[in-house]
Amino acid sequence: MRVVATFMLLLLVASFARASSAIDNSSPQQLIETSSRALLADLDVNREKYRRDKKALYKVVDETFLPHVDVDFAAQQVLGKHWRTADATQRKRFVTAFYQSLLQTYGDALVEFTSDRLRVLPYQGDPAAERGTVRTEIRRSNGSLVAVNYSMRKNASGEWKAWDVVIEGISYVKSFREDFGLEIEQKGLEAVIRRLEAGAAQPSGKA
Questions:
Q1: Which residues contact 77 (CB under 8 A, 6 or more apart)?
Q2: Which of 34, 60, 138, 154 could bridge 130 with an S-S bond, Cβ 3.0-4.6 Å?
Q3: Can you tell me the mean pLDDT for 145-160?
Q4: Within its chain, how far is the Cα of 105 from the centroid?
Q5: Under 8 Å between Cβ of 172 and 164
Q6: Gap between the Cα atoms of 74 and 173, Å rounded
Q7: By C-alpha distance, which of 159, 139, 161, 141 is closest to 151?
Q8: How many of the other CB atoms lie within 10 Å of CB of 153?
Q9: Separation CA 200–CA 204 (nearest Å)
Q10: Over the stretch 88-126, which tens digit does the pLDDT of each residue have?
């Protein structure tokens, strides 16, 4: 689960850029390529700052990742059948707490990510389709390669957004849905949301 969550976070944060860096969301491939370049360029400049001050990293992500990631749709898929029974307030709280928990827990791994560890592979999808998959490879610290595929969907405005990460055939959405589903069945949705909120409130992101 740690590997899945770390690269899910990489996907979320890869959507941010400084105002001077253009993000091209006209196609799935362009979105991943341009956002990844923007992320890595920012990390190269601000890595030491982010190591000392994670809040600075969190602030940049909070302000700029939303336009390129379909967070609500991803959270809906994570909750599965429980999304239908949740009220509007619970849905909003779950989306916020789930994201904050991931961001704080795996911030250290993100800060250490470098450009030589990522390779975006040629796109093989149908340019006219409204869904697509962008394939990449991530090199672990031991040199082994991990297949990381980003699931993309086009919104009503014609913009591409990312909503899932599949690591060596394992979907983060499916993995979290199984984990949260079991906990919700045992404790209830409200208890799970409160646990996530409590964890996100801690400096380390862990309750």
A1: 163, 164, 173, 177
A2: 154
A3: 89
A4: 13
A5: yes
A6: 7
A7: 161
A8: 17
A9: 8
A10: 999 999 999 888 877 776 666 677 778 788 888 998 888
| Residue with the larger pLDDT of the pair 156 and 102 | 156
Class of domain 2-115+173-201: alpha beta
d(CA 176, CA 168): 16
What does the block give as tokens for 138? 């991530």
- Nearest 5°: the CA angle 143, 7, 49 is 90
The two tokens of residue 178 are: 């199984």
Tokens 């404790």 locate to 187
Phi, psi of 68, deg, nearest 5? -115, 0
What whole-number distance in Å separates Cα of residue 44 and Cα of residue 33? 17
Cβ 124 vs Cβ 134: under 8 Å: no
The residue behind tokens 């909750």 is 79
Name the E strands within the chain: 118-120, 131-139, 145-154, 160-167, 170-171
Per the CB < 8 A criterion, the answer to whether 112 and 13 are in contact is no
The DSSP output letter for 17 is -
Tell me, rounded to whole angstroms, the distance of Cα 148 from its chain centroid: 12
Element holding 49 (H helix, E strand): helix 28-52
